[in-house]
Design a protein that fits this description.
globular, mainly beta, single chain, 171 residues, 4-stranded antiparallel β-sheet, 0% helix
């Protein structure tokens, strides 16, 4: 993670010891919310979100153990500093589906990094692939998530490709 001023002069940089980052979003206070994956001993690579202050100090880190072997595809920080993310995961919460995924995973963290909600989505098609790829916040507080769905033919080729739009309402 590197911070530059408006003239392109580097202000500070940070190196992460384990895992990798793929998204960054700023909150109104200038804190950087960084999404990626962490490395753990079980090699499950859970989603991780880190919040850094304007000077580069780590404020908090949230490891989302329910979302493993996947990738955060999009993240938004609202005006209050809550983080919303969506992406792909191999793990589901209720155990009803085989853990072969990938499945659509979405979550909201509060300003202190605590989970407000986490959810996953599976279309019900056993061979489906359901990666969430983008999210947007609605004016009334809802979270809209765009995902894709594909079903596979017996020979392993893609049989159909569709889009899915999910909406989560405020709690």
């Amino acid at each position: 993670l590197v911070k530059y001023d408006l003239n392109g002069v580097q202000q500070w940089h940070l190196s992460q010891r384990s895992g990798w980052n793929n998204l960054v979003s700023l909150d109104p206070a200038g804190n950087a919310h960084v999404a990626g994956r962490s490395y753990d001993a079980a090699q499950e690579y859970p989603f991780s979100i880190r919040k850094y202050g304007p000077g580069g100090n780590l404020i908090w880190e949230s490891i989302m153990a329910n979302f493993t072997n996947g990738e955060v595809k999009d993240m938004v920080v609202d005006t209050q500093g809550n983080s919303y993310m969506t992406g792909i995961t191999q793990r589901v919460f209720d155990g009803d589906y085989p853990p072969s995924g990938p499945y659509c995973a979405s979550a909201k963290l509060d300003v202190s990094g605590s989970s407000i909600w986490q959810t996953d989505y599976f279309s019900g098609i056993y061979t489906g692939v359901n990666p969430c790829v983008a999210l947007a916040l609605g004016s009334a507080g809802g979270v809209h998530v765009a995902a894709t769905n594909s079903s596979m033919a017996a020979d392993g080729s893609i049989n159909s490709l569709d889009y899915i739009t999910l909406k989560y309402t405020p709690q």
